[in-house]
Amino acid sequence: MNLTLNSHSDSQSGFTSIELMIVIAIIGILAAIATISYQTQVRQSQLASIHHELNQFRLPYQILADQGAGVIGYSHTEMNIRAKTNYCQFSVTAPNTGAKTENAVICQIQNLNYVQGETLSLDRNADGVWQCRASAGISNKYLPWACQ
Asked: In the CATH hierarchy, which top-level class contains the domain 17-147?
């Protein structure tokens, strides 16, 4: 009886190049999705920061409005707030007595290439309620919920 041992095994170990390419493609797709999500989150936080900066004008503006006709001017100087920040160049409009004041406080956005030159503003209703408004060039997906 002659027994021969087969030195070859029928099973293979390792990965084929096709399997490796599929894994690399899946990793690439996941990385692309993560990058897009990250960019969206960064843009949302930048616009939330701008909204926060705008809201700092609300109380000083209301105090000046409550002082009535004796107030000569409405500006960042009278409100003791900076006229410019990293993302905003602010402008202030005097209130319309007994009516809605559109663009009571405006942020002209700067240093953000995806919304460069766009505005985020606060309108003040006659009853003192504030409303955020964005220019048409700012995507709703980046805006804080109060501005949508």
From this structure: alpha beta
Burial of 75 (0-12, 13-18, 19+ CB in 10 A): middle
Residue 88 CA to residue 124 CA, distance in Å, equals 19
pLDDT at 104: 92
Query: How many other C-beta atoms lie within 10 A of the C-beta of residue 94?
Result: 15
What is residue 128's predicted lDDT score, i.e. its pLDDT? 87
Rounded to an integer, what distance in angstroms lies between the CA atom of residue 104 and that of residue 132?
10
pLDDT for residue 1: 53
Torsion of CA 25, 26, 28, 30, to 10 degrees: 170
Helix (H, G, I), strand (E, B) or coil at 57: coil
Residue 9 has pLDDT above 60, yes or no: no
Contact (Cβ atoms closer than 8 angstroms) between residue 74 and residue 124? no
